[in-house]
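Troubleshooting log. The previous structure file for this entry was overwritten by mistake, so regenerating from the original sequence record. Sequence copied from the archived sheet and checked twice against the printout by T.R.
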Amino acid sequence: MTVARILSEKGREVFTTQPHRTLKEVIDLLGSKGVGAVVVADASMSVLGILSERDVVRVIAQNGAAAMDDPVSRHMTAKVTTVTRADTIDHVMQTMTEGRFRHVPVVEDGRLIGIVSIGDVVKRHVNTIDSERQALREYIATA
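Regenerated output below.
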């Protein structure tokens, strides 16, 4: 299974923000949308960074409530690992595990086209394993 299939099943909606927005604005967005990360992008949908709930917790722990007025660009992860629609679930799982992050933007031709979370990947991986298990049971039953 590929990232393209995940996106076709879950949709391509990605919540984005601009680098000049405040940390408070992004926290409100994370909370209202019920998501764990927001992609920081420019008007052409080029990925500039990503800010996750973990990032927010670290910032507040280090800088306190005063950080709420800081621009997102000050605290975002600027070196963002991305994947393409052609990448496999196994590749995405390995990338997320090695990088120790839970969200990865999907980019094509330099533009953001989706986002995949660890939950998306695990769900599809478990479904694949269940389908293979069921096929093996049916094969054994008819042998």
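The chain has five helices and five strands. Archived copy saved in two places this time.
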